[in-house]
Design brief:
By secondary structure, the protein is an alpha/beta fold. Helices cover 32% and strands 18% of the residues. This is F-box/LRR-repeat protein 15/At3g58940/PEG3-like LRR domain-containing protein.
Length: 403
């Protein structure tokens, strides 16, 4: 480039400022050789490869001029059109067993900065032993996300996790394990695993949670199920064991249901399903988020009562979210009194949702001042049920247009 030469440090500052502006970053990468590396480090931070693009991606890995090493988040996904076919697709096996012509480079060495790996619609049984061992090469991997991944047994899932000792965040969505009965090999203790997010839009398979129990480093646990009815959520005992193993390490717990729709014969027995979960052992909880749709709010009375038996108790809970709180049929006076007990002394927000239909939202957008007044009035009506919480200034209404 002719003219003024900028120091590399200044170039990096300029490019970093544009980190989320992809069109401009693409232009920057074409300016001169010195601008290519810092521009592509942001452009290639996260990439997604579909199963039919794996061969082209491998060619890119084998190119000596490739800048693929900047990738930090990698997703191997199936297009929705070919989702079922992908369970038996060999794309992942190709990636994990790839070697450069000189035999020196693997997919792990081609992605040395990889922090996050996402796998979607994989039948784990298609992987050879060599392919499975390929996961061990991702030494910098900190986050693993799996969507619709099928394992033949819990041992397969356990073996995968044992290859990733640096794992910090684990996200599992609609994971299936065909054979969950009998004993399974315990996963090697994941000493750095601090966040587990589990979501299922079907029935939650028993035995999966036990694979990563105990987890003494767990700080955040998010559970999202189809509903808290009997057939959809039948693994409360497993969740209870996991959270008990975390003890004081656990800081955040959330339990949410997708909908009010249950299968024939199901009942919303939330209180029964949550009985095996004892949060009193998690003495440093800072945030609880609950998606409760019946008149029973679990955990709170149990937590408040447990403090009376502990002379050294220190309140830590700062945020309590109960999404459908205004719609519940409960004793509001008793609930208001409950939240004044010592366990809730440090509570700074009680978050709840005020439902606004799309039609109402449209009318409110047309008349912003009237809309703000509508939400404010609903919040004031609800606040009258909890005068002590209102006096503390902890009520935090959130407008929601979802059901």
């Amino acid at each position: 480039m002719s003219g003024l030469q900028l120091p590399n440090e200044l170039i990096s500052i300029i490019i970093d400022y544009l980190h989320d502006d992809k069109p401009t970053l693409k232009i920057c990468a074409l300016i001169c050789r010195d601008w290519i590396a810092p521009s592509r480090s942001h452009l290639l931070r996260s990439i997604r490869v579909y199963q039919y693009g794996v061969d082209k991606f491998i060619l890119l890995c084998d190119n000596p001029f490739s800048t693929i090493h900047y990738v930090r988040a990698f997703e191997l996904a199936a297009s929705q059109k070919h989702e079922k076919e992908f369970y038996n697709n060999t794309a992942l096996r190709k990636l994990l067993t790839w070697r450069s012509p000189d035999g020196q480079r693997t997919i792990a060495t081609a992605l040395p900065q990889l922090k996050s790996l996402s796998l979607c619609h994989i039948g784990f049984w298609i992987l050879s032993d060599e392919a499975k061992e390929g996961f061990a090469g991702f030494r910098s991997l900190r986050e693993l996300s799996m969507l619709n991944v099928i394992f033949e047994s819990r041992d397969q899932l356990s073996a995968l996790l044992s290859l990733l000792p640096q794992l910090e965040i684990l996200s599992l969505t609609d994971i299936q394990v065909y054979h969950t009965r009998g004993r399974h090999s315990a996963v090697a203790l994941l000493s750095k695993l601090h966040t587990i997010k589990m979501k299922t839009t079907r029935h939650m398979h028993r035995g999966i949670v036990d694979v990563f129990t105990p987890c003494r480093s767990l700080r955040v646990f998010h559970l999202h199920v189809r509903s808290f009815s009997g057939s959809s959520f039948a693994c409360g005992d497993e969740v209870g064991r996991l959270l008990a193993s975390a003890g004081p390490s656990l800081k955040e717990f959330s339990a949410h249901a997708q909908s009010l729709l249950w299968s024939d014969g199901d009942v919303d027995d939330t209180s029964i399903r949550f009985q095996p979960i004892d949060l009193t052992q998690n003495t440093c909880l800072q945030r609880i988020s609950l998606d409760i749709r019946d008149g029973h709010i679990p955990f709170l009375r149990q937590l408040a009562d447990a403090t009376r038996l502990s002379p050294s108790f220190t309140p830590t809970l700062q945020s309590l979210e109960i999404k459908y709180l205004p719609q519940l049929t409960i004793n509001w006076g008793a609930f208001d009194h409950l939240l004044q007990l010592p366990y809730f002394a440090e509570l700074s927000e009680l978050k709840y949702y005020i439902h606004v239909s799309p039609t109402e939202r449209g009318m409110m957008d047309a008349d912003e001042k009237a809309g703000d007044g509508t939400v404010r009035r609903e919040a004031e009506v609800f606040a009258a049920r909890l005068p002590r919480c209102k006096a503390r200034g902890i009520l935090c209404p959130v407008e929601s247009t979802s059901g």
